Amino acid sequence: MKAVRHIGYHTFPEIKEVEKPTPGPGEVLLKVAGAGACHSDVAILHEFDEGLNPQMDPEFTLGHENSGWAEELGAGVEGIELGAAYLVYGPVGCGICRACTRGQDTYCEHAAAMDYAGIGLGRDGGMAEYVVVPARNLVPLGDADPINAAPLADAGLTPYHAIKLALPHLSGGGKYALVIGLGGLGLIGVQILKALTGATIIATDMKEDAMAEAEKLGAITVPGGEGQVERIREITGGKGVDAAFDFVGVGATVGTAMKSVARQGRVTIVGIGNLSPYEWAFLTTPYEAELVNTYWGTVGELHEVVDMYKAGQIVPQVATYSLDQALDAYQLLVDGKVSGRAVIVPHGH
Ligand code: NAD
Ligand code: ZN
Q1: pLDDT tens sequence across 65-108
Q2: Same domain membership, residue 140 and residue 6
Q3: Are residues 18 and 70 in the same domain?
Q4: How many other C-beta atoms lie within 10 A of the C-beta of residue 91?
Q5: What residues line ligand 1, using a CB cutoff of 6 Å?
Q6: CA 124/CA 33 separation, integer angstroms
Q7: Which terminal residue of the chain, N or C, has fewer Cβ atoms less than 10 Å from its own Cβ?
Q8: Assessment of whether the complete model's pTM goes beyond 0.90
Q9: Do 46 and 335 touch, CB atoms closer than 8 A?
Q10: Which of 247, 268, 275, 331 best tests ligand 1's pocket when mutated (most atoms within 8 Å of CB)?
């Protein structure tokens, strides 16, 4: 079968012919419905250096945001329906530590001893005709469309986790949230904030069309550049935003978030754009403002995200590409030309 392979550090991926995998004990073979192209792959392909994360050493098949139909069950698997559609929880931890048993494989206590970080992250992912995943990583989609659902596995789950942890900052009325970066994750982030909070949402991006999309979803937009922080503060009546979510994470956007946050507010950095240190100073930081980063989410939260999708509260903006067009989709992502999410559909619609 064909697969999109990460073949080396600082190297563009290739489409190669590989063997169709077979599910081992406790695993399931999925016929891939959709595999999202996440901006993290751009970092993995072009920015990561050898030695940074040995679990993600090439070569492997990309695609950590997947959905598909159960095609074959490995030994001992029960409760998975052949032919039914599932969303895939991508992180794969040891399965037995405290983090994994609460469904948070992202923070597995034995991660360093694992051979891979997740599906499409060191272990073969979903940008192929078929993918093998552990049965415990499957979230049933029922009648919901699995192709449009694919982005939920990361572009939905990651902002959901970040926003859920910030909810105490957004409760109590008269609250403001800031969303920086309105791509795959950011546009779903706006929808999740709208559905879960009464906060006024302020959003920003370099791209006009992304800001127009956020306005349609109910956000107030503020363009970048001169006067941006002042404008954000003005909207909040001077106090600043109670929670900021940075889906870019470069020095400039972290700075915007930290300058826009209110006292006792929370800044969550999700974008992995900044691999160098950030300078923090006592007197220019609002008192008790928290600065945290987050990584993906829990499988329990993925079930909640699927409920929101089924209820129409999350509608991913999807552009589909065939497996043969996957490299074009990655090039568009590198060039900043994807609106919403590019999803590879190996078997068509
Ligand atoms: P994307 O390419 O779909 O969207 C990024 C958006 O940010 C684009 O609309 C772009 O125009 C905008 N942007 C870029 N630079 C900007 C700037 N300086 N100011 C304002 N807007 C700017 O990317 P994505 O797939 O949504 O991923 C977003 C980020 O989140 C990436 O860095 C990705 O690696 C990271 N990520 C992190 C996690 C995690 O668990 N922490 C998970 C998935 C993705
Ligand atoms: Zn574990």
Answers
A1: 999 999 999 999 999 999 999 999 999 999 999 999 999 999 99
A2: yes
A3: yes
A4: 27
A5: 38-40, 43, 154-155, 158, 180-186, 204-207, 210, 224, 247-250, 252-253, 270-273, 294-296, 333, 336, 338
A6: 16
A7: C
A8: yes
A9: no
A10: 247
